[in-house]
Amino acid sequence: xxxxxxxxxxxxxxxxxxxxxxxxxxxxxxxxxxxxxxxxxxxxxxxxxxxxxxxxxxxxxxxxxxxxxxxxx
Length: 73
Hints:
Blueprint: H1 11-18, H2 24-55, H3 62-72
């Protein structure tokens, strides 16, 4: 299912957009998807940093733990 999103731009910008044979709807969909991907990655990095900070200074090496776990299984 899709939703319609609208936004306002200046008349001169719209006139200039009309001068180019570009599917602006598709371009904007791609731009929004790219930005959402970037935001999801930032959020994931933040969660990973929180986890990393919890084990910081505890003498635990997460990469070493992963290697041990992989060797067991």
